[in-house]
Amino acid sequence: MIEQEEYTKENAVRIEIDASFHYIKSGLLILKKEKNINYNRHITLQLLASGFERILKILLLLRHKHWNGTFPETEGKKNYFSSFGNGHAIEELLEALVKYSNKQESMQQNQMVVEGLLFLESDKQFREFISIITEFAKYGRYYYVDTVVKADHQGVNPFEKFEDFLDSFYNESEQRTYLEEDELAITKAIGCIEKGAAEIARFFTHGLGEMGKTFYSDFAGYLLLKDENLGKMEYAEKKVSISETYQPLDSRSARFLAVKLTSKSNSLVEENYPSWPFKVKKVKVYFVGGINYLVEIDRKMFALTGRTGHNYKVPVYLKSDKLKPKGYANFLLEEAQKLNKNHKNQ
């Protein structure tokens, strides 16, 4: 029972880490897209504040597990992070984490990590960013609503403060247009925030023992950033999987003919299967050798396993346009494996 509870909690941690990364990434992508410094930043601040608050809380929970062997528990409605501005004091959460690092030899003996901790503690622009999202998380999320309903509203405007933060990266040049200067300032600001995220992520790899290394997940995108790549957000670009470029073997190709001539095969027809998922009445499965299995559908060959797809550079049968909507055919691989006399020994 205890093991199941720990598994459930660890899974929850992974979900929160994933959410944290995507909040931060999405906030920065929106910031990068909005190329003018003087712009409404509601969504950007909401995403960045939520992302940093979440990841810092998770790291403090993992710190507790690293120290005590289990995650902390609270009773009733008590908030574990109540001493941190009811959980929204991002600046204090970060300070608690940095304070923890002072007791970790694995962090203090690594020069790269020490320099990163110094950045988190004393970089003027990053500290200003943390102050802004803290103010936003604690009091400023409804700043403009409060402006409407509160007489003589005197609260700090986090949106103006964030604009000032972006302005701090501004560097005028007669060689650039105003728009180009805005874009450059925003790129530098993004780089500053990315560096902060990267240094925070080092707690996973250097501050929580072997356990921490199993959790950092997507934050590897920040950990691998080099200074010259800060602000470019290359890690956020959609990467096309090699498998997405695979094409089925066409009946006119030499490879198609080679498979037909050298492989064991068996034809499967619609009448023998109550839930036939194809738009054609017959397909043929092939055992090509080793652990490779293919299926021919309407004169095109597809893979029946991911390994076969990789080896033959062809997509799996689910990519066939002759498969009915929501159709699947687990029996294809079963039938193909019957052609392999050594299958049970593999």
UniProtKB/TrEMBL annotation:
It comes from the Bacteria. This is Uncharacterized protein. It comes from Pedobacter westerhofensis. The lineage of its organism: Bacteria, Pseudomonadati, Bacteroidota, Sphingobacteriia, Sphingobacteriales.
